[in-house]
From TrEMBL:
UniProt subcellular location: Cytoplasm
Name the record gives this protein: DH domain-containing protein
Ranges for domain DH: 5-70
PANTHER family: INTERSECTIN-2 ISOFORM X1, RHO GUANINE NUCLEOTIDE EXCHANGE FACTOR AT 64C, ISOFORM A
One Gene Ontology term, aspect cellular component: cytoplasm
SUPFAM superfamilies according to UniProt: DBL homology domain (DH-domain)
The organism of origin for this protein: Rotaria socialis
GO molecular function, one term: guanyl-nucleotide exchange factor activity
Pfam families associated with the record: RhoGEF (PF00621)
InterPro entries in alphabetical order: DBL_dom_sf (IPR035899), DH_dom (IPR000219), Endocytic_GEF_Adapter (IPR051480)
GO aspect biological process, one term: positive regulation of Rho protein signal transduction
Length: 70
């Protein structure tokens, strides 16, 4: 019982983290890249709008990989 609750919580954490990483990627592909490609905003403006965005992706992707490794 306790073991299955723990496994369920871990699965939920992994699934939630996966959805978050997927959502971060969607924003990158649907907003950041098109804004950059269209030169609608310069890199500094994009950086101001999406502060630490790529750091978030890297951090959460690493966390997700670590969770999968366990």
């Amino acid at each position: 019982p306790m073991h299955s609750l723990r496994l369920s919580a871990i699965r939920e954490l992994i699934e939630t983290e996966q959805r978050y990483v997927d959502d971060l990627s969607i924003v990158t592909n649907q907003f950041i890249r098109p804004l950059n490609n269209a030169r609608a905003l310069n890199e500094q403006e994009i950086g101001q709008l999406f502060i630490n965005w790529f750091d978030l992706i890297a951090l959460n992707s690493n966390l997700l990989n670590a969770l999968h490794a366990q």
